[in-house]
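Tokens as discussed.
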């Protein structure tokens, strides 16, 4: 990834003010935080986990530079002894996480951090930023892959993504969940993703005629894709066929034509007829232009003979559901389990593990969230694994191709009904173990007794 001078300051101010207060109070006991998604976005029935690689890279390299500390000193809010302590700060905690490419659901911990309290608190903003965004885009890409019904699609999103770094992360997340490649050349270099490109309308317009543009480009890039809708799509298809016929004697082929506007389903049928009648049934049809999973599903439902898709804006921004409500909450410290009781934002106490139970053919049946210390159920597969111990990775970085293979295998094991592009009911079952339920009830009672003892005695606290 592209390094910035320091990422330690990529944190919300209140993380630092809380850290300073903990420091002043001598509160740096071991604490456990968990990152989870409260509820699935609109029309989502599952999530594809992504972003862990950036999390581990950040945690291993966490440190405040002299320039960072000078800036914090200039704010006038922090004591010198705290800033001096920050200079020596390194992450020394343990991390358990679902691997990238795993399927997850609401209220399941995707990641668990156990570390000295200040360390665990300070990293919240970066962890949420990395996991929320990349999981959001990977999930969107998985939906596009489902809609494509086995056809290829590529990431065309960088020019519409919300920033330079977002475009890189979007390309990686999309590739994990099924994209065949990306138009983003830097993402290709950094992550080893296949890069894909055709031509722009400006290239065609730069020549006296469309035929001249096609002829030049096909000679320069044999097997290329020609963009045929600059002037008239059907005439463009005829010109592409003419160039293919003309250059065939030189051993040069045209691989595909691209549609980028109009009624793509109807145009694809007419373009297919033109190419077939001209003797080029092997020239493929590639479609782009404000596509998402819904439009692709409708296009293919109309029996459009389209072989591949370029998906841009809607993929890189997850246009129909552009945010993910991930949170990072304290669940345990030296005093024991911790719980939040706020209405609609309550949490479950204790460090937890997630077990997945599968049926015939490996299809997922239900998940169980249990306490990390519970005896593992024999039939359940634990989803969180230790990825960092004492601030160091337990394993080398996974090849992106392996993460992608895991994701595609998991999508194959997803129940068919969850692959709907609309919200299904009932949702995938996520249960709590009996031991977790007992701990939750006991912790709620303890919190109630400590914070409003009169109500607790009368039985009104819930």
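Sequence:
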């Amino acid at each position: 990834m592209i390094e910035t001078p320091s990422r330690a300051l990529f944190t919300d101010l209140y993380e630092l003010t809380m850290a300073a207060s903990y420091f002043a109070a001598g509160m740096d006991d071991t604490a456990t935080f968990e990152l989870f998604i409260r509820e699935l976005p609109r029309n989502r029935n599952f999530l594809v986990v992504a972003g862990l690689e950036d999390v581990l890279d950040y945690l291993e390299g966490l440190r405040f530079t002299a320039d960072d500390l000078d800036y914090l000193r200039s704010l006038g809010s922090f004591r010198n002894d705290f800033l001096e302590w920050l200079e020596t700060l390194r992450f020394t905690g343990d991390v358990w996480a679902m691997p990238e490419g795993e399927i997850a659901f609401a209220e399941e911990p995707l990641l668990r951090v156990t570390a000295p309290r200040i360390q665990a608190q300070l990293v919240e903003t970066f962890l949420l930023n990395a996991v929320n965004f990349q999981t959001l885009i990977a999930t969107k890409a998985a939906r596009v892959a489902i809609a494509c019904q086995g056809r290829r699609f590529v990431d065309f999103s960088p020019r519409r993504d919300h920033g330079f770094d977002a475009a890189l992360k979007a390309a990686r997340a999309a590739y994990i969940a099924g994209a065949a490649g990306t138009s983003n050349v830097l993402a290709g270099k950094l992550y080893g993703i296949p890069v894909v490109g055709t031509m722009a309308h400006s290239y065609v317009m730069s020549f006296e005629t469309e035929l001249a543009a096609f002829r030049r480009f096909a000679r320069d890039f044999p097997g290329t894709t020609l963009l045929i809708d600059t002037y008239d799509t059907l005439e463009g298809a005829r010109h592409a066929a003419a160039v293919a016929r003309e250059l065939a004697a030189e051993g040069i082929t045209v691989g595909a034509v691209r549609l980028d506007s109009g009624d793509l389903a109807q145009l694809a049928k007419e373009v297919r007829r033109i190419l077939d009648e001209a003797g080029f049934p092997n020239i493929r049809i590639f479609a782009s232009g404000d596509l998402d999973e819904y439009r692709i599903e409708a296009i293919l439902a109309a029996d459009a003979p389209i072989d591949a898709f370029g998906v841009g804006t809607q993929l890189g921004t997850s246009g129909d559901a552009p945010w993910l409500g991930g949170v990072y909450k304290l669940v345990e410290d030296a005093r024991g389990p911790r719980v939040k009781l706020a209405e609609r934002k309550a949490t479950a106490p204790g460090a937890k593990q997630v077990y997945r139970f599968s049926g015939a053919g490996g299809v997922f049946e239900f998940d169980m969230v249990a306490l990390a210390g519970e005896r593992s159920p024999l039939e359940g597969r634990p989803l969180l694994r230790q990825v960092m111990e004492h601030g160091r990775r337990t394993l080398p970085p996974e090849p992106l191709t392996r993460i992608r293979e895991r994701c595609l295998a998991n999508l194959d094991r997803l129940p068919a009904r969850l692959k709907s592009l609309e919200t299904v009911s009932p949702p995938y079952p996520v249960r709590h173990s009996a031991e977790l339920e007992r701990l939750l009830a006991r912790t709620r009672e303890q919190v109630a007794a400590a914070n409003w003892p009169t109500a607790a005695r009368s039985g009104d606290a819930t």
